[in-house]
Write a structure and sequence with these properties.
about 35% strand, 8 strands, about 25% helix
Length: about 110
């Protein structure tokens, strides 16, 4: 199962992060946002802030940040703690936390299971 988090602002796509089991989370950023420097404080995770370019900050967030999946455990699975790249429940938790944090800055995050 793949999970994709799509980040947009209004009708403009900003970035997408794709979870695939056993791999690092792949981050792709729309051309218009690739050079944009951001500094967004995060309140819904232990990961402080998104700082730097979108690509670098999202890569660090999903592949190095720490998350606890006890609130988003899939049926039949144990709670986990670790980076979003390590398990689908951690990626789901990271995406949902990011969604809550980016809403107040005018961004939307949509999560799709493929």
């Amino acid at each position: 199962m793949h999970i994709v988090a799509y980040i947009s602002r209004g009708n403009a796509p900003v970035a997408e992060a794709t979870y695939r089991p056993g791999l690092f989370v792949e981050v792709r950023v729309a051309k218009e946002f690739q050079d944009l420097e951001i500094d967004i404080p995060l309140q819904h995770s232990e990961n402080g802030r998104l700082a730097g370019t979108w690509e670098l900050s999202l890569d660090r967030y999903f592949n190095e940040g720490l998350f606890d999946s006890r609130d988003t455990v899939f049926r039949g699975e144990m709670p986990r703690c670790g980076a979003a790249r390590e398990h689908k429940s951690l990626f789901h938790k990271a995406s949902y936390s990011l969604k809550k944090d980016l809403e107040r800055w005018g961004y939307t995050v949509e999560i799709e299971f493929i």
